[in-house]
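sorry for the late reply, my laptop died twice this morning and i had to redo everyting from scratch. anyway the thing you sent over, i finally got around to it. pasting the sequence first so we're on the same page, its 351 residues, then the predicted structure underneath. double check i copied it right bc i was rushing
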Amino acid sequence: MQKTVVVGMSGGVDSSVAAWLLKEKGYRVIGATMELWQEKKEGCGSLSAAEDARQVAQVLSIPHIVLPFSQVFKEQVVDYFAEEYWHGRTPNPCIACNRYVKWEALLKHSKELGAEWIATGHYARIKQLDNGRYSLSACASAAKDQTYALYRLTQEQLSHTLMPLGDYTKEEVRKIAEKIGLPVAKKPDSQEICFIPDHDYAGFIQRYCSRALSPGNFVDSSGRVLGTHQGIIHYTVGQRRGLGLSAGRRVFVKEIRPESNEVVIGEDDEVFSRTLRCHQLNWMGIPGLGGKEISLRAKIRYSHQGEECTARQLDKDLVECTFHTPVRAATPGQAVVFYQGDVIAGGGVIL
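ok and here's the structure:
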């Protein structure tokens, strides 16, 4: 009997080729575009994305549906994004979207359609390890590795997911798209946060929340006042540009203190740290640390190459990570993702 897979189709080349590859393997493929942010005219989750995906589905001769996920997207992604900034943290909305929208909501709806699987156009590989657990490892193209943003996926979600692009490079995917005549073969990749295409995070948060923004003090590590900032939602740890501060030297945001409405400024060496703590843990390749200190490799942002570290559990939902070499700008609200060999061991949110 033909197995059914619902492919999350964003209207881009990656998910379109993923749908074609699965059809070629004999799956009954249903294309599903998630309506995420109705105010956005183009890009992921928009009306134009749905139209691009519909045209691809016609070429592939597969059914196509549009799923109204704007409410769950608002609650789990946009509300979370804005609230984190008000508390002096720098969130990663794509990680939240993957966990709660592109997997949880899509998998639930797909099961209602009778599908055994969901699939996406992410560049990663799913592995079932010798310990029986599912995890993710890097794809064939290290430059496109997307495992970092997927670390919060659950064992249940991974066990029902297919990622057909794991063995392909981006160049190979585009060649396939051109060869089979997909209308999105040359469509450029989306680079911005989908609901903030102009990159003005602070402006969006102010409009979205309708809250008064209170200026406060720039201070150094000793508490000396250096100037006045525009409001903490304008800043993130490690930031240098756009401070509006005449210090006479290169300075960076070292810390954000929402309780006192202060932004702490330091020199470059002050934004490096050897240890960090994280919570909201999600274990993937391993069930946890089991009270032991474990040597792992950790990435503290999507573009970070990773650094060797030792992780130890301090409490049920608290891990301390000590790096062999100090890392730059470990930012509260961002994710630290632990790798064991080539697979994700787990991860958490930096405190």
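The chain has a mean pLDDT of 94.
thats about all i looked at so far, will dig more tmrw
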